[in-house]
Amino acid sequence: MKKTVVLGIVFVVAVLIVLVYTTMGNDRYKCQVCVAFQGRQACRTAGASSEEQAQRAATENACAEIASGVTDSMACENRPPASVVWLTRK
Question: Which domain holds residue 64?
């Protein structure tokens, strides 16, 4: 086999390993956040490497469903959540 083919295969395998590690290995904290905004409510689940990041991601995802526009999204994201349920804490 040519040296370039072997290097290409090694590179692809390395990229796949990094991809799997970053998507599966860093969710040390996982929570479900429910938000209420302008008479609507949504709940979303997210995971991250810290509690703050997990809660923020879940809040942003829930607000994305019920808020329209940048101003509403920011207002929704800055409100206290209606509920936070921690599914995983490591």
Answer: 27-89
- Decide if pLDDT at 43 tops 80: yes
First-to-last CA distance in the chain?
Answer: 45
Mean pLDDT taken over the chain: 89
> Is 14 contained in some domain?
no
Asked whether residue 40 is domain-assigned, the answer is yes
Question: How large is the average pLDDT for residues 32-45?
Answer: 96
Any bridge partners for residue 34, and if so which? 43, 83
Q: Is residue 64 part of a domain?
A: yes
Residue 72 main-chain phi, psi, to 5 deg: -65, -40
What's the longest Cα–Cα distance across the chain? Answer: 64
Q: Is the pTM of this model over 0.90?
A: no
